[in-house]
């Protein structure tokens, strides 16, 4: 795999989706969890999505249960939780692994093409430009509100091209 657009992932409803469908959009890829201290970040992520979606911005959420089993529910339960408690309307994907031998190939790519460091916890975020390049990796403690200036700058630069 040489580009983020070479990957195909399973949406939370079970349908396959090619990441090539997001070509030309700015992306924020996040590994999420429903029972984590960082779970309230869903609210900030949804706000980012609502504020910038019209600027060709998408958030792709990937639930993960690898960190203290903080997302044990089924895909349907996870989606219902996210929508009911945080109004999540951005695309959510099926539960994946982001560490270890069974790590999803997308996350292997994201890690190896950014810092090279393993995912330490839920809500690690990767900002991707419209050409598919990883612009920046944000660790879990970096809130959506804190990364909004970086996102806004990238969206403005993209619009100016």
Broad structural category: alpha+beta
User: Would you report the number of β strands?
Assistant: 6
Q: What is the CATH superfamily? A: Glutaredoxin
The percent range for strand residues is 15-25%
Name the poorly predicted regions: none
Whole-number total of structural domains: 1
Tally of DSSP helical segments: 4
* Biggest sheet character: 4 strands, mixed
Assign the CATH class.
Alpha Beta
> What CATH architecture do you see?
3-Layer(aba) Sandwich
Helix content: 25-40%
Radius of gyration: 14 Å
Give the distance, in angstroms, between the N- and C-terminal Cα atoms: 27 Å
**What best-fitting shape do the alpha-carbon axes yield?**
globular
Strand order, largest beta sheet: 4-3-5-6
Mean pLDDT: 94
| CATH topology annotation | Glutaredoxin
């Amino acid at each position: 795999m040489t580009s983020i657009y070479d990957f195909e992932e399973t949406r939370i409803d079970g349908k396959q989706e090619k990441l090539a469908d997001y070509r030309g959009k700015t992306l924020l890829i996040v590994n999420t969890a429903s029972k984590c201290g960082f779970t309230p970040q869903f609210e900030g992520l949804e706000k980012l999505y609502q504020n910038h979606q019209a600027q060709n911005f998408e958030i792709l959420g990937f639930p993960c249960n690898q960190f203290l089993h903080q997302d044990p529910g089924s895909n349907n339960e996870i989606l219902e939780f996210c929508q009911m408690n945080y109004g999540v309307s951005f695309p959510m994907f099926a539960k994946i692994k982001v560490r270890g031998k069974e790590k999803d190939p997308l996350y292997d790519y994201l890690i190896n093409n950014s810092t090279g460091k393993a995912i330490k916890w839920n809500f690690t975020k990767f900002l991707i430009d419209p050409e598919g390049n990883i612009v920046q990796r944000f660790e879990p403690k970096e809130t959506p509100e804190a990364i909004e200036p970086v996102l806004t700058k990238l969206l403005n630069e993209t619009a100016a091209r």
